[in-house]
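Please go through this chain and its backbone structure tokens and walk me through the local backbone shapes. Keep your notes short.
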Amino acid sequence: MGVTDAAVQRLVASGYPDLGVIARGVTPPPRRSGRTTTEPPGPVMAIRLSVTGIRGGRDPDRLARCSYLLIVDVSKLGAAIPPAWIRTPADRDIRHVNIWPSAKNYCTWAGGWLPSLCWNTFAAGWLQAPPSHRTLGNALEYAKQLLNAENHVSPAR
């Protein structure tokens, strides 16, 4: 499924200036015979962006600000909350309790094992929301909320 370029551009203009497309789906070939045409780009399947959150953990500096570079798989956005991996900081430097260690989830888009967001109760809320509310913008707002607070009963760390 993915998302459209228009949806990505709206988010870039409304507060996510470094949001970038890292993967696209395939656009079916045109059903015309004769002349070849330029095919439109396929749907956006994965994005990357920076989100500022808290460092987390139990140390005195747990509320210090930290920039997280996320990779988000938006290929099945309407069906489930999108998987999101942390590209930076490195796994060994992450103390936030709502982030799974890298050994837990493989990121196809990065070609390796990366730390990932533990959506926990956010995932249930996503599925209870009307399909029209399961947008990329809302998923990114969920990620911001998750990275700016900690649920110490999270199973992640």
The chain has three helices and six strands. The beta strands are 20-24, 44-54, 65-73, 84-88, 99-107, 112-117. The first strand starts at residue 20 and ends at 24.
